[in-house]
Design goal:
177 residues; four-stranded antiparallel sheet
Length: 177
């Protein structure tokens, strides 16, 4: 490929949605990035449907689709041409698209998308590690707090004993007067 395709990572990231607890990209967004019509992309997928099992690609249910469309109520432009339930492609489905759409642009865009998915995964792992470290610090802090309370209770007992000190006769040798 002669020239590198310039697509900002943010543009791709903004087109990744969470549907059915999976990070997916919609067919129309992918078609836009590949610079093909959505209809062409869907036809290519349907011709090669065996390459797209349910964990690679799924079609929104009618209920999901209506819910999705209701989020864009301002105008038809905002609905982004959604008249039919879109195909939702997981990271693996996006990778498989490069074997179906064999243009140079599709391959280059797919590489870029896969890198963005990988970065998102790394960020989530880093975020998880930070959360685990925070939990560990909270546990240590809780233990320190308990230890400090124990030290203060011992100090209170010592102070109380000192205040309640009774007059005792000293033990030992007595000087003759």
């Amino acid at each position: 490929m002669n020239k590198e395709i310039v697509i900002p990572d943010e543009l791709i990231t903004n087109k990744i949605y969470l549907i059915r607890d999976q990070k997916v990209m919609l067919d129309r967004d992918l078609a836009e990035l590949y610079q093909v019509e959505t209809k062409v992309l869907k036809q290519a997928v349907r011709r090669n449907i065996a390459r797209f099992p349910g964990d690679f690609m799924f079609e929104m249910t009618k209920k999901e689709f209506e819910n999705w469309r209701s989020q864009f109520v301002t105008s038809n432009v905002d609905k982004k041409g959604l008249r039919y339930a879109p195909f939702c492609f997981t990271e693996q489905g996006v990778a498989m698209l490069s074997s179906v759409l064999k243009s140079e642009r599709a391959i280059a865009v797919n590489i870029k998308i896969i890198r963005v998915f990988a970065r998102i995964r790394e960020m989530l792992i880093d975020n998880l590690n930070v959360k685990l470290e925070i939990e560990e610090i909270k546990k240590k802090l809780s233990n320190h707090s308990k230890n400090i309370e124990l030290v203060f209770s011992y100090l209170d007992e010592l102070i109380e004993k000192k205040e309640n000190k009774s007059d005792r006769t000293p033990i030992g040798y007595k000087k003759n007067k």
